[in-house]
Design a protein that fits this description.
The chain is of the alpha/beta class. The chain is built from 16 helices and eight strands. The chain has a single domain, classed as Metal-dependent hydrolases (TIM Barrel), CATH 3.20.20. It comes from Cristinia sonorae.
Length: 412
Amino acid sequence: MNTAYLARVTFGYPAIDNHAHPLLSAVNRNAIPFEGLISEANPGQGLLEDAPNTLACFRATGQLSRLYRLSVEPTWEAVKAARGTVDYHQLCVRCMEPTRIQCILMDDGLGGVKELAEGYKWHDSYTYSPTKRIVRVEVLAESILLPIVETMIASGSIDSLTYATRFIELVEDAIQAAAADPEVVAFKSIACYRTGLDIAITTYTEEIERALMVIVLRYEMTRKLRLADKAVNDMIVLTTLRIAGRCGKPVQFHTGLGDNDITLKLASPSHMQSIIKAFPDTNFVLLHSSYPYTREAGYLTANYPNVYLDFGEVFPFLSAEGQRNVVRQVLELAPTNKILWSTDGHWWPESYYLGTVQAREVLYDVLSASVKAQEMTEAQAIGVVKRALFDNANKLYNLGLEPHIPSSAFEG
């Protein structure tokens, strides 16, 4: 059965990248090991050195070799050498133009962004529609808590209950202000990294007070502030869910795939069933395909009207067959009007390129196989593509965009 028009739409239709991060600035383009492009492993532990030996890297090496027009045998070292010879702006153009990303929704709270990366509006140079912000709530809360902790230490105060109450109030005010900002289209929680997705549906000021004393003591010893205390983290998430539901802003959650800072068994979105039920007016977005818990995420998406599933980040971290399996699992149960695509692009423009090119390839592979097996029509498959790449995100985040389709989009 001919699927030529499905191919043209899959590879040519504009996309809304519903979750990504900023690119490094030109001066910092080599500040982070490039192997992070194809591995979530933390630098400095020897694991990044293993990344070039994965099937994911072999595939990325070939694709980037073609992007850079290399005439030599495609190797990871040749790819790294080639990108270093290209002007940074031209490198961004070369990577971004083929993606047909129309709009990026950007979490600019990733660690290191302020020091190393460009601001979110800078990315408008490479998209047709303006970039919008996603507010990472734990980072927002840390910026509020730091001066409180420093004041407690400087004053020698033991009135931790007053400080805890004040912290809760300031977090609520800050999230409310972010929700009212038209540049902010969503919130994002990294509770998965900090204390896990088994988030309590109630918290108590007394628990936060006790946690605050621990935070103060830890800060006195390390001079580092990182919220990883369950009562505090749960309070931040619950406050966000309450306000977001009232204001119509979705809340994204990191689920599944990540580095070894995650407790894997607490990264399954199945732990979130209680809070999903408790906040029926708040839209939840389960990020990163929830890999390796994709089926659990699909189950939640199918059974709760306020749950959406993002099938990003597996591009380019998994092998091609692994990616196809993930997309098949997403489509096993999840309604196709509730799936969203993202690159999780970060630091390097190649992350946007690979995250898009591979996603389009895999989406076509899976859907065209279903069409050829007469499990769906080509028209139905095309509808899935348009919803997954653009329409669902446009509606969920209230972007009000029209798909920008250049005359050249469906050529070839």
